[in-house]
Amino acid sequence: MYKSNIHGANDKRKVNPDWFTDKTWMKVLSEKIKSKDQDIYHVHFERGSRTKIHAHDGNQVLIATRGRGSLEIFKRYGTSKTSFRIKKTETLRLNEGDIVHIPARTLHTHGSIDKKRVFSHIAINIFAKKNAPYKTTWYESDFKTNVSKII
To answer: Rounded to a whole number, what is the distance in angstroms from the first to the last CA of the chain?
Structure first.
């Protein structure tokens, strides 16, 4: 059994800036508790920052911990793996304490919706296969109708 605290000092990790629209950082919680079945992150989005559109090979759970955010779900059209059309099918507002489950292979984006406040959540990425790395495919898009490439 391992115990840690989400508010540990100086354990922020930079994120790949190609995967976010603005300043974002995270803490890797799964390393602190030696988790073997999922990756767990505390992700902090600066004002208005969000993820680029992406999909995971396993399920994901988000737990909003601060501010107001959103989760947007998209449907893809076309057979190309690298560029295709998209349509937003659902928008969920996320407030502190909200929990949401995102099924594997769901095209989505999430992050801050308020230009004046930050947003943070805990992301639990559940491995699709035991002892296999969790895979996320990130896309460049206009967030409205088109995905132009895999990042």
So the answer is: 37
